[in-house]
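Q: Given only this backbone (337 positions), what sequence would you predict?
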């Protein structure tokens, strides 16, 4: 005579009843998350956001939705970061170095002339260094989901061509609201003017600043060629961008929902990087087509820029954790080899 236990075991062994022995199906609830950033629709940053939103909806069976707010419509980066910490905005993507206000170690990624190629940046940011940086964030109210790219920054202005390092002296240059950028352009002899990105075009148009520095794709998407005549290819800083989510929002998600977000962020990262890199050369050609005068600084002038930037590198390296500086240098050496 079969006991209750053996009867149950026999039932579970039947093919048609195997479902009884399987883990519960993924528990995905309905969520709508606001995702804010600075660049305009069509920019690789926003293309990455659109891909991410598409992947989240697909992976969640339509239950999780991402509302996109590009173009700085919810405020500049500093304001957006504060909103994430407060939980009024759920997600953003911004230059990783801007998180230096939360942890000084993040300022290391904005050091001048740190990376020579995007692939070096990928290796460093996707490896132990980038992971350690992200681990410092939850205590600051945000959670890191991975690194995208903005690309190499170059200098534009409306006063004169920049053919040598000394030509930068005296120019009023809008910079990111970041100590590294302020110190760098002070060291180069310019007058740095920190301001939020959404205010930049008007500042260029009215002459509040003479110029600015951004990757080619930003200059195109914001139509800065309408108010800037000269472009110098300086590649002075490469910007990894970090995708972050409010910890308050993260804590409301269960593990299945978090997996949807993580997986979508990883897939969107690869898509976004490719989009950014493929558009860089196209953007430079477009800027030339709009009549911008493009100057390629010779190697000896780039060397002078590096020399002027060295005190800035030393200052901000000294302010960071010695352990993280060593890890960065070790990982960068591996990437270069």
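A: Predicted residues:
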């Amino acid at each position: 005579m079969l006991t209750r236990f053996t009867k149950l075991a026999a039932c579970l062994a039947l093919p048609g009843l195997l479902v009884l022995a399987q883990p519960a199906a993924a528990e995905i609830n309905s969520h709508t998350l606001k995702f804010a950033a600075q660049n305009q629709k069509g920019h690789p940053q926003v293309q990455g956001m659109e891909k991410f939103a598409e992947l989240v909806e697909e992976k969640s069976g339509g239950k999780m939705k991402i509302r996109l707010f590009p173009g700085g419509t919810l405020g500049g980066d500093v304001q957006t970061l504060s909103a994430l910490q407060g939980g009024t905005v759920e997600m953003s993507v911004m230059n990783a170095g801007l998180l230096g206000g939360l942890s000084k170690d993040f300022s290391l990624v904005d050091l001048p002339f740190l990376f020579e190629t995007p692939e070096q940046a990928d290796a460093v940011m996707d490896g132990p260094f980038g992971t350690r940086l992200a681990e410092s964030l939850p205590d600051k109210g945000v959670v890191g989901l991975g690194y995208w790219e903005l690309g190499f920054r170059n200098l534009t202005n409306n006063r004169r061509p920049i053919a040598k390092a000394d030509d930068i002296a005296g120019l009023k240059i809008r910079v990111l609201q970041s100590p590294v950028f302020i110190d760098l352009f002070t060291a180069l002899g310019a007058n740095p003017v920190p301001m939020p990105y959404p205010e930049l075009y008007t500042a260029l148009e009215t002459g509040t600043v003479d110029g600015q520095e951004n990757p080619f794709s930003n200059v195109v998407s914001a139509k800065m060629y309408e108010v800037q005549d000269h472009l110098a290819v300086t590649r002075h800083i490469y910007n990894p961008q970090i995708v972050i989510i409010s910890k308050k929002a993260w804590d409301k998600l269960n593990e299945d929902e978090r997996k949807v977000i993580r997986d979508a962020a990883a897939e969107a990262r690869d898509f976004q990087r490719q989009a950014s890199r493929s558009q860089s050369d196209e953007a430079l050609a477009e800027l030339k087509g709009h009549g911008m005068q493009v100057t390629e600084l010779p190697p000896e002038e780039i060397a002078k820029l590096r020399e002027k930037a060295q005190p800035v590198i030393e200052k901000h390296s000294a302010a960071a954790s010695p352990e993280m500086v060593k890890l960065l240098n070790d990982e960068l050496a591996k990437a270069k080899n």
